């Protein structure tokens, strides 16, 4: 990680980053890991999965959308899914229905788990972690646990490994 840079939230929201968009925590930019092919491909397949459900379930998938978790904290999940309404503001400040983080080789699991917990505490009903390198999937609700498939029981939606891993 590089040197920390202090900027205001307003500056952050009006800054374009040359490589990968950065997150923001209490005045400081937070670098994100660069994705590799498996990360990118999995992100595309997850986004496509939810786009296919848009008309049936009013699900709106957004890859890499800035979310305002609280004053001074902006995160960028790999995939956010809104249901039943789509966001009406450029940087949503209400929890999405699903947030998905996809592991990159450079990610530190402790940092990713802390991020997942932020989403859960914020009120995201379905918080998931996908590891395309090990072909494993996890949910973060009361606990962090590996699962055989990712499910939204209320809607009868299930994502199996073969849906998102090559």
Overview of this protein structure:
The structure is a single chain. A hairpin with a 4-residue loop joins strand 8 (126-131) and strand 9. This protein has 5 helices and 12 strands. The longest helix is centred in the first third of the chain and has 16 residues, at 37-52. The protein is an alpha+beta fold and 166 residues long.
Key structural traits:
4-stranded antiparallel β-sheet, single chain, 6-stranded mixed β-sheet, alpha+beta
Total strands: the figure is: 12
Shape: globular
Helix content: 25-40%
Beta-strand proportion: 25-35%
Could you give the distance between the termini? 30 Å
- Strands of the widest sheet, in order across it, are 3-6-7-8-9-10
**Rg from C-alpha positions?**
15 Å
Reported for the largest beta sheet, the result is: 6 strands, mixed
N-to-C series of helices and strands: HEEHHEEEEEHEEEEEH
Q: What is the number of helical segments per DSSP (H or I, 4+ residues)? A: 5
- Secondary-structure class: alpha+beta
Average pLDDT for all residues: 94
Low-confidence stretches are none
């Amino acid at each position: 990680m590089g040197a920390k840079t202090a900027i205001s939230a307003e500056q952050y929201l009006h800054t374009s980053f040359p490589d990968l968009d950065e997150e923001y925590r209490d005045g400081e930019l937070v670098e994100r890991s660069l994705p590799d092919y498996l990360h990118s491909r999995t992100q595309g397949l997850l986004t496509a999965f939810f786009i296919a459900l848009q008309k049936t379930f009013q699900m709106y998938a957004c890859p890499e959308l800035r979310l305002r978790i609280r004053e001074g904290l902006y995160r960028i999940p790999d995939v956010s899914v809104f249901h039943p309404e789509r966001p009406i503001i450029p940087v949503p400040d209400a929890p999405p229905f699903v947030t998905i983080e996809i592991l990159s080789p450079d990610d530190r699991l402790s940092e990713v788990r802390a991020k997942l917990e932020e989403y859960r505490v914020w009120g995201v009903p379905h918080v998931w972690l996908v590891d395309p390198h090990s072909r494993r999937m996890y949910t973060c609700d009361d606990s962090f646990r590996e699962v055989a498939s990712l499910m939204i029981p209320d809607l009868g939606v299930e994502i199996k490994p073969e849906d998102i891993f090559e």
